[in-house]
Automatic annotation (TrEMBL), chain A:
Domain named Na+/H+ antiporter MnhB subunit-related protein: residues: 98-221
Organism: Thermococcus celer Vu 13 = JCM 8558
Transmembrane segment boundaries: 65-84, 105-123, 129-146, 167-187, 199-218
Chain ranges of the MrpA C-terminal/MbhE domain: 33-87
Protein's name in the database: Cation:proton antiporter
TrEMBL record, chain B:
Cellular component terms (Gene Ontology): plasma membrane
Pfam families reported for this sequence: Oxidored_q2
UniProt keyword terms in alphabetical order: Cell membrane, Membrane, Transmembrane, Transmembrane helix
The UniProt record lists the keyword Metal-binding: no
Membrane topology label: Multi-pass membrane protein
InterPro entries in UniProt: CPA3_antiporter_subunitC, NUOK/Mnh_C1-like
Compartments (UniProt record): Cell membrane
Coiled-coil ranges from the UniProt annotation: none
Highest taxon of the lineage: Archaea
Entry protein name: Cation:proton antiporter
Amino acid sequence: MLKRSLAILTLLIIGYWLAQGLAGVPFGQDRMLVGHYYLEHVKEQTGAVNAVTAIVVNYRGFDTLGEVTVLFIASTGVAALLWRKKKKRSAKTEGSVVLTTGTRLLVPFVILFGSYIFIHGHLTPGGGFPGGATIATGFLLLYMAFTTYEIPHRGFEKTEGIAGMSYVLVGLIGLGIGGYFLFDWIWQTWQLGTDNIGRLFSGGFIPIIYILIGIKVGTELSGIIDNMVKEEVSE
Amino acid sequence: MISVYYFGAISLILIGLYAVLVKKNLLKILIGLSIMETGVNLLLISIGYVSGRSAPILSEGIGPNQAVDPIPQALVLTAIVIGVATTAMALSVAMLIYEKYGTLNIEEIRRLRG
């Protein structure tokens, strides 16, 4: 009891201190410095309509590369931590007929919608990470509904690696053409889709990179799910 | 007077911190970490809000002067993914701990045996 009240007291002090700090930051006021530049130049500099994805992929592309690396390390780490010689699904109860039939009907739509999200990353809210997470949800549904389902490991791991390598490759092509890593060569050098802003074939290399990221994130999260729902089988 | 968004974000951070400080169950501590992370993300997003403006997706009706700050949203996109990655790692460590010790109570997990 003493510990709890002491913790609450400390937390109240921390909260008051944070609130004092935030009192100098008025809510809802225009405080943009770099943000104005991004919003005003996003269309002619990147060809994307969605400013957030343009920042994530184009202006601050290194962040995304690091983020993809973090996710890759996490999926490798989960696989390494839960590594066993012989693994099998531990689930015993098959889902009800409604669940299995519903899953069979839904999974194609879930994957289609996930692909829609990451292909249209430069036009609509979303992008590679939400789209990839949606695709992984489809595989999670399969795992929940069928006790024997397993993702095809070889194909998935290869796809993941190839998608990650292609992302770096796109950046390296930019290094060769434009002089720095992750240079948007499709937009700046080739000027593809300059009269097409706001439609699908625009946005420089944002759609390409987001397709790669979407595939990578989808396979990675599915791999994490796969590792977590399995148990060791004793001989 | 502090904004309700700031207040909510700070409360989420504090609730998460409380769970980390007080709770004994490892899974509850992880839940606390996730709540804390949500609070941080909400704080970042609400700092970028500009009253009366819409999402930073420029279309015919929305020019550069009618959009909110896009940078915090990009930051939070990164932060969410990193949060998911760390949570996945922590959960698999928790699974291993339960297999090895048979308990998730942090007071009973005395020393890490090799």
